[in-house]
Structure formats: structure tokens, C-alpha cells
Task: structure prediction
Amino acid sequence: MSTQAEKEDTRPVDSRTGKPIGPMAQPGYYPGFNTLSQQKFWDAKTREVILDRVHNVPEVRFLSPQEARLLKAVCDHVLPQDDRDKSHKIPIVPQIDKRLYENSHDGYQYEDMPPDREAYRLGLRAIEEIAHHQHDCGFLEIGPREQDEILRSLHDGKPSAANEIWKRMPVHRFWMLLVSDCTDAYYSHPWAWDEIGFGGPAYPRAYMRLEHGEAETWEVKEKRYDWKAPENSMSGEFEPASGQLEHPISPGQGGTH
Amino acid sequence: MKSPLLGEFHPPNGKPHMLGSIQRIEIPMHRFSEGEEVDYVIVGVGAGGGVLLQRLARAGFHVIGFDAGPFWDTERDWVSDEKGAHNLYWNDLRITGGKHPLAFGANNCGKGVGGGTVHWASFTPRLHPSDFHIHSTDGVGVDWPISYSDLKPYYELMELELPVSGPSYYPWGDPHGYPYGPHPMGGVGDALIRGCTKLGIGVSAGGPVAILNGSRGDRPHCIYRGFCIQGCKVGAKASTLITHVPDAIENGGEIRPNCMVSRIHVGGDRRVTGVTYFDPEGRERFQKAKAVVVAGYSIETPRLLLNSACPGFERGLANSSDCVGRYLMAQAGNVVLGRFEELVRMYKAPPAHALTEEFYETDPKRGFARGFAIQTVGPLPMSFARQMMTAKGAWGWGMRSVMMDYNHWAGFGFLGEILPHAENRVQLAEEKDRLGIPIAKATFTLYDNDQKLIEYGKNKTMEVMWAAGAQEVVQESRYAHLVGAARMGSDPRSSVVDQFGRTHDIANLFICDGSIMPTQGSANPGLTIMALAARTADYLIREGNEVFTSHKPNNQKPPMRRDLSPPDTWGHGMPRI
Result:
């Protein structure tokens, strides 16, 4: 049985022609750029760690199959990859599951939050409850627009149901946990580096062209194209997330200085 | 290019221990035997503990440095990869709360030999002379028990030992020059210079940073790869792991890595007798020592003192003032990001390479006390995505599209002084870690002056970004660094340690890390922690065996010992201004 989500086109569109973009092996403005092709210039340990990330996708061990399916549907919206072809989708759920299975984290837990494992279980339950409350069926059975609406309500801090859960876990904290886990998984993958033009590891070779955004000989010049989010999506526009308004300081980001 | 320029640096047989791409530890490390009483146990081998360990070993003391994390072999353990660097940080659980809770881990805490200096960006400005008396001058915070002139010679010494690269004339605070020349600019530094120049704001280009711009001894120069806060595999960025620990080992000091100290013991005469620790296999052991130095930084130091409570010290060790854990500080560390029409590629060059301290001092016209600095930052993709999540509310397709523009963005870090408050503190939580030791809980709230300063400084930093030519400017609120929670002072009723780091309550218990700083200025704290450690070392060495027997602290300043620097670090570089 195909779900409603699978019937609708969820690909981004070319702004000029209005035609859907992809699926393709490598979206982004750096066609042909391939960080992995530079791996012989990386040190041995870095190569080992990054190749392991690419080739050994971990099994799902912490989440139940049902939870994993639901989380996959959620992550398909939080970090959509409909412009990527099947063999070039970056695994998100296996990385989140690995973190939860190993119980590894960033070294702190907010006093108003449960531990991450419980937070994910609660969050997934809440998303299901909201779907049932609004549509009388599960999150997996509703269309992409309706799925996006539910996630957008978490982003806005205004979920329509599951209040008992949000009393135990502030919605904005769960949202940031979910989004940052998705972005960590996606942007730690060399295919994402190719997409955004990030040079990747540079030891022992070094970068030499430091100024004016100039490319190294092995990097690729930017070739932009205009595109926009699919019609049925609600994540193309930028709106501050709810936590930002109520809590002027929202730490949780990695060190930069 | 058909073949790699350089091969693997580490030899295949698993030896020797590599610190950077050239430096090796060839001599075996001295091991003190089980049951042997040593002179000093140092708990934590980071910025403070690393410098102190090296000094004490060189002076001939029997000293062991415990660290809860590994003794890194940089070639085998470290990677040029954001996610792969996760194990450099203190990732053990802490609870964080208050109205404006702190983040830990990657943000400010190291685990392993070298501590936070392994992953600092290595900006190394000094405090300003005004920082030592803000209560007298501005009526806020508290005065230090020492002045800038007490620390100045130690700043100069540390700038040579690391060494620090920077301009030959640095105009702010006490003007001075740096022994190694400034670094070339990257795209972010260019933006900071452009913005500051347009607004008539002074700016320092190419430092001060503890990164080599030319090779020295067995350390090569910087290769501008941009992974400073993921650990410098090159060995160009200073960390006590590569600058001070090798000399400590050479002089008979022992490092005991992967050993978590859980308790400090007190004997019948109210003097400490040693520490209990968990060895790498998780077995509980006891190490006897004539004196103990705690150097675990602003969370672990108070945690250990509080966890060591015993009859006679029910509130925790050295806590008769109830100040252990209190006056915890972080600096405001908002990141301001600007999108430019042209490409920037901010992942190149060290994130730390230009700054301005033009707004450092109190300006009554601004309506708050104290000030801030503006510095370059260079977030890599994972960090940048998280910043876009909070700064723009990005997710979904919005996240994908703004990330495709990663190479168009530049980042400035605002670094603002947050004042000490008694209620910003570290306590013990109910939860325990995997060894059964109660974990730390931090409470943090911003007060009126802090909020005004952040609002002003954030807007000023954004103004500089606009002036640099950005088409869009956004910002994310966060913190940087930690200090305080075991502050120094002359009055035992309102402080934990004296000016030399000796606890007021226990004559042979010392603290040597950022937790003793009473206030923090808006300078990155690393250099100050090291300078304080070198001063504590001179004091302990001058006192000699008195430390192990006497109950009466000597408050006389020690003579400065330049002969205790690691070899070939003294006498190089610029003439002093």
C-alpha cells in the first residue's frame, strides 16, 4: 500500500522553469566536487574515521522498528533529501539511533529535560498523538503537507495536542534536539560537504588560498542555480523558532570561540 | 598532482608517542611505585595543571598529574573532522539549569591530557590592568587580591613559552608586543578588518594567538587547515600537551591518564593525605601525597571539593566560606553571522586570527559596567548548521538552502564580560556517573548589567558585520569559556584560595585553574590561567618542604624563576616594550 506521502511530488523546484529538481547524485552549487576523491591526501586516522562513516551504516538497535519508521518519516521533513537519488541519500536515523544506543551526548542535560533516550520516545509519541488529534490517523498515513504542518507547529512551539508530554519536556528543547541531531548526521557526511563546497580534511596537505573565497586547485568554483522548496512544504521560509523568543540565550551549540 | 605530497607521519610499529607531526616522546615515563608517597598530586592536566606539573617536575619534586581522559597521541587519536573530534570534550553528564543555562562539552570543557587547550581556538589576550579592580573602579564584581603588575611578568613568560603570535604593538590594556609575528588573514579576518576600518575601530590582525607562524624546535608552523578546535594534528597550535607535558616527563614527572579522582582525603591534623581515584580498569585506588593541587576547571574542581566532604569538613573541603561552587562565570559568546555576495570560505585559516578590544573598558555613556571584545570565528558545517537553526530558525528545505550558501558566510564572536554572582553556582546533583560519583549541577542566570552589556555588544558586533558589506546579518546567543567557582581573595570569609592558590582552610591543598579567577574581563582565559599557574609554581618551589609541614601560610611574593621554562623558549622573539 502506498501512502499519500509517496503519491505527491516532494522535490524542490527550479525557480525559473517550475520543474522539479532531481533526484540526482549531488545537489548543490559545486558540480563535480568530491572530497572523498582527496582521501589519499588525508592522514590515516581521519581517512579511517570518515570512510567508516560512509561505508558502515550502523544497524538500528535502540529504537523499535515502528519508532524507527516514524522517526524516518519525521527526519524526511526536518532534513528532506527528495532531490537526492536513492543511492545518495545520507543516513540520518541510523546515526541518531547509534547515539541513543550508546547513550552518548554533548556533556549536559537541561534540568527541565528528560535524558535524550526518553526525550526521543516521548517526542515520537507526541507527534503520533498530534496526528491522531488532527487527522484521526497516524503520522505515517497523512500527506506531506499535513506532516510538515505538525512539525512546523513544534518549530513554532504551538503543538495542538500531547500536552501531558510537553509538560514533561519543553517543546522548543525537543525541537532543537531533533533538528541538531539531523543536521549533525547530514553535515558530517562527505556527500554533504560536496553539496555545500566545504573542503573537508586538510592535514597534512594544508589550505593555501585563504582569502577572497578562492578555491584550492582541487576545489571547485561555485555554479549557482535558483531553486525553491516544493509547493507542499512549510520549511522553505525562515521564521524564528519558539525557544528563541522566550529564552534569549539558547546554548547547545558546539564551540566556536 | 598524482600522488600525495606527504605520507603518514606515524611509524607502523605503534611507537613512539607522537605530539604533532614531528615531536615525539622517546624516553620512557617515570612511574612511581604503588604505595609510594609523592610530593604533589595534581588533579587535571590542562592549562593550569600542565604548566604547574612541568614546573614542579623541573624543580625536582616527585609529582603525578592525574587526568580523567587519555594521554593523546595526536597522530593516532585525532582527526581532521568535526564529528570525529567529539571525544576531545568532557562529555560526561552534567545537569544545567537556571534562567539562562550554560552548555558544556565542546563549548568549554576538555577531557584528556592538555585539557581545554587541546581544543581552544587559542586566542591569548591578556587581561587589562582595570580587570583587577573593577569593584573599586566600577562598583561591580570584586577586586582581585593581586594587580596586573603581579601577573605581567608571567604573561610575558607564557607568551614566549607557548609562544604567542601577534602584532609587534598591541594597543589595548597594557600595550605590549608579541614574540612571533602575526598570521596571514583568512576571509573572516578580512571582513573584520573591513568592518572595523569603515567604522574607525582599531583592530588587531593575525593575533594574539598561540599558533606558530614559523617552525620552532620540533614543532612545525601552521598550515591554515582551520581545524583548531578539533585538535591541532600539525602541532602548530599550542596546548600544554605539546608545550609543557613533554618537559615534565623528561624531568621525571608522571602522567596517570584515564584515571578519575573521586575524593581527596584529610588526615587527623586537618591536612590532606592523598586522593582516591579510579584506574583505567575502574578499580578504586589510593595515592598518597604530601600536598594536593586541584586543577579540574570550574565544574570539576568544585565537584571534587564538594564530593570530598568528611567529618570536620561537612560542607566540602575548603568551603568554610560557602564559596566553593559559587561565582561561576561564563563569557557572553554570541556568534554574529553575515552573508556576503562574494565567497568567503570561512573553514580556511585558524578560526582565531583577528580581534578588537576597542570596547573592552567601561564607558559610562553605554549605561553598563565593563565591556567586550569582537573576534573572528570560523564554524565548520556541523556547528554552522546548528547556528542557522537558532539564528534563523532554519529547518527542512530552509536548512538545506542556507547550508548551500555556507561558503558565503563569515562569523564574528562577541566576547563579553559577565559579572560574578553568588547564585550562579555549581552544586552536586542527585544523579551519579558510571563510577558512582555524584555529578555536577550548574545554575546560571544573567543579571541586569550582563543583559545590557550583551544587548549593546551584540548590536555593535552586528553593526561591524554590516559595515563589512554583509547583505544579511543574524546572530545566535551563546556563551564561551568558564571561570570562577573557587575564587581567590584575601578574606577567608568570602573566598576559597589566597593569591597563590592555597586554600584558606587546608594548608597543603591548592587550586590551580580558571576556577580561582574572581572576575574574567573579556579576554579569553587560557593565558591568564597559565600565568597564574606559573606564579603558583614559583611560590610552591620557593616554599619547598614548608608546604608539606607548615600550617602558617607565607604571603611573601616569590622571586620569578625564568630558568624553569621548557628548553629553548626563553630569550627568543621581540624585545619587550
Notes: Residues 380 and 448 of chain B are 33 Å apart (CA to CA).
